[in-house]
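User: two proteins, same treatment. go.

Assistant:
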Amino acid sequence: MVNKIITEKDFWTCTGGNVPAPLQSVQQSTKTKDGKNYITIVDTATSSYIDFGCNKLMLIMAIVAAVIAVAVVATGGAALIAVGAIAGAAGAAAGAVVGGLICGQIAKMARVWLGSKDNMIVQGKPAITSGNEMKCMLFGDKISHAPDIKNWWQAISLAGANYVGGILEGMMAGAAVGMGGAFISGGRAAFVEGGTPALSRAALELLKNMPKNFGVNAVESFGKFGLTLRGVMGAQNTAATYGTTGTATVGDFAAGTVAMETGAYDSFNNIKEGKGTWQDFVGMAMMVAPVGKGKRDLESEISKKADDAEGKKAEDEATKKAFNQEVDAPKEVAEFEAFEGEPLIQSDLIPEGTRRNSAGRLIDSKTGKFVDEPNSLSNTKKIAYKRNMSERKKALLRDANDPNSGLSDDARKYIKDNNGNKVPDKKYNKDYKGSDDYAVHHEEPLYTEKSLEGKKTLDKSDKMKTIPKQDHIDTHSYCGNTYHKFGPHQNHK
């Protein structure tokens, strides 16, 4: 094959770069017939602002970011894998930016041509052909002619594919760091709890869970995030194909969407033949590691923190307002909220020598006889306690996922479809179509505590249970279990 005499219009690629780019000629007088400047042995800079866009720092910064995130994040277990993956992707993206700055025009000083066309002299310097290569002395990478890249559209497409690939590689490296962190923290906890036998049991449990992990990972790969990732990989493969060949089809996109499966197959063969890279080993390990579970755990933790923050904000606002306005006491006795939301009386002090019975009535400590309240209820301000919706949500989802909770299929589906934010009760939620209504029942009613802090201790998911609404009403009614054990609500007639 005859080598081509290189001009400023020809594209080059670097083995350590993301962006194909043409070289920039120092001399501007000697040109081809169509006006293109020849490239000579002194031309080592490109015409691109970020040059070849060095990719060396993408993986390094991905690993550093993942290590820091896994070391300092306030979580543990499988969620560390997701944390590491996210941090790795972010670190790789940052590395791409820094790499572009490092490469730049300054890098031209560290490049040396490994050959030239000595029998063609341009302005006193040997010309460059497509068969010549240039070496970057900083990292040892080689810069070669890319004959199939004809224009900037191809170059930009290939650069985009390379950057996405680098970020995905950073995500994989971060996930590997997260896996290591999860295994170390889990192993340490097991060893502290029961020594070597407990550590052995934990390792055995990990092996036993591999088939389950594989199944969960497969399901998650077709979930919302999984399908998004497949779409990104499809677009990446399409861009890479167009960048290197100048053409791309729907088939290239489709091939990218199954790259996880084809990549796993290739990794298995590479390892079998003794040619496996770290990407091959990590990819195979991720197939049976609790990656999908880690994603779910992290999502659950983030959702819980968001709900807690929202609930606390709403509770603080409600408390603040309650000090400045009167709140009417619940009026309907037969509804479950009436039993759970008794207002706190701000002036509800217990005079010396008195105490309150289980029903909240003030009595003389010695005689046991009822005594008058120190203030008229009609003249006191009341602070309404706001139910902890985050805890109620956890209780609903727990019971919806428990096959022995006694919930109907309609109720289970309604709770899951609404992510635990709605109770399956047609009176309060018109979109619920089930035949049976339910309520979230407190094992110990909130009205047994008079302070906000006291009510908070009872308003926990482990002290709640989703039961049929009529059962909830019955237990609070006269001679019901709750009525019998804790006494009537102050509004109960």
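Protein 2:
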Amino acid sequence: MSAESYGAITSSDISWYDSNQDVIPDENSDTDNLLQSQRTSFSLTGGGHASLLTFSLAVQGDYVVDFRSSALIGVFRHWLYDENGQKVAYFQGGLLEQNAINDYFLRNGRHVNLTAGSYTLVT
């Protein structure tokens, strides 16, 4: 997706990276350390990957952060930052995450209320 309009989302761009396999991230991790070399494709058989999604919202409201095909995600962590680089949300879950609370049946979606503005999501 790039510079397209999807309702309240006025623009977005995603980049994929190899993630640092030596780091087991948590809520307070430095996400810059997770993003290693950028990739144009990745292995479909697993491995450590990270994405950097930037997007802008035109409307304040309730949103769901989710994967397009999330049923088979083993472990994920989302760090959501506002346009000032302040963390506004952190979520974790996946099939292998024992204590994960899933808001949506058979999905890894997480609810968040956001104001209009620009955001960065590191997954």
